[in-house]
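Running co-folding for glycyl-adenosine-5'-phosphate.
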Amino acid sequence: MANEINNFQEIISHCKEYGFIFQSSELYDGLSAVYDYGQMGAQLKKNLRDEWWKSMTQLHDNIVGIDAAIFMHPTVWKASGHVDNFSDPMIDNKDSNKRYRVDHLIEAYSETLDKTAGEAILIEMDRLLAADDLAGLKTLIDNNKIKCIISKTCNWTDVRQFNLMFSTQIGSVAEESDTIYLRPETAQGIFVNFLNVQKTGRMKIPFGIAQTGKAFRNEIVARQFIFRMREFEQMEMQFFVRPGTQMEWYNFWKETRKKWHESIGIPAEKLRYHDHVKLAHYADAALDIEFEFPFGWKELEGIHSRTDFDLTQHATYSKKKIQYFDNDLNAEGKPYGNYTPFVVETSVGLDRLFLTVISLAYTEEKWNKEDGTEDSRVVMKIPAKIAPIKLAILPLLKKDGLPEIASQLMHDCKQQFHCFYEEKDAIGKRYRRMDAIGTPFCVTIDHQTKEDNTVTIRYRDTMLQERINFADVKNLVINACS
Ligand code: GAP
């Protein structure tokens, strides 16, 4: 574990050094649990978002995408249950004044125990959480003498519920203003648009509505870099189905989403399912797809069977009818019917997916050269199709017409994929810089190019080099990224 934590610190430093992720407002000493994506990170994040969007909206005939506003009518959050229920049990240490999420505090403690004892305390915690037994959670903390990491004391307050939504005011004059919330999930923007999309898109059940966008949660314990942030991005899809068929679709999406993660290069053995013991107020079944992060197995994506809870709640609060008229029921010999569709949701955090990809990609390599000396590199083995830059184009020298040939290649390729042109420094140094940002291919233009129209292509992961025709470079990269 110690090595893995070190490795995680190195990943964080690497992300900063190579323009993937910066602390927000770093100039002013940063803002806790808020991050900015730099030039490499923004592109990698966009590629992940695009892959997800394509897999949902382009590869499924019955899923469409929308882009709803972050600000929504305040009643939305009353109807959804977030005003009353979107809270976590918290506890404060009276000596350090540090506040903890109870499940995080107990989980961290369980990791210090042996396997059997660690599992036992987590099972007990799950039971108490499922029963909303706040006093029982406090007793569990007291009985195990769990300490605050700052004060090192067990001087705790009672366990209390804290709402995680950020609120703000809309309107410029105080009297006219109203309290609104920054959305804590993108899903509600889909539910309130269910009828708009169904009618204008003439969608037939089963069908899905997908959306990506920012969500905000006032996480009390924000840690582990971009794993738990206060401002983050979700990629959610609500799949509307006939009542009674939800478990079939729940299983379908459980499988489909795990396979999708594998399709973008996450090894199957690094993913697993975790069924929820305590169900959210809206769910009749729920699970997490977990990934083995450098700090342990944690939730990457949630699959939730949300019943008809959300649509029914919005119908009640808005006093509008939100139902679907199912023609096909009649064709099947059943009476015509209006019903409130059930919903199966897939919800993945884009930032967590980003962290997954970079945790897997970050590799330190050392080897002995032919002269016996040691060499090393840090390489980001990001799968080609999501790598921020696909091809580096490197003239060996800044003269003899080599930059002109390289510029020609740049011109040919940049309409198709992201290229990077660089003339400065020795070629070895340039290769290392490309390794560090995960560029899968480097092409070097040298004097031989002028003679026989070939270039040297260097493969990031193996460092192997070979000569190929200048004319074949573009297709080689396109094929590798498709
Ligand atoms: N609409 C359902 C929903 O929001 P969730 O399990 O609370 O469910 C879904 O969140 C996903 O959003 C999580 O699996 C995680 O990937 C991501 N997520 C949640 N809270 C996050 C946070 N504070 N920082 C980063 N990602 C977060």
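Result summary
The CA atoms of residues 66 and 211 lie 5 Å apart.
The longest strand covers residues 296-307.
Job closed.
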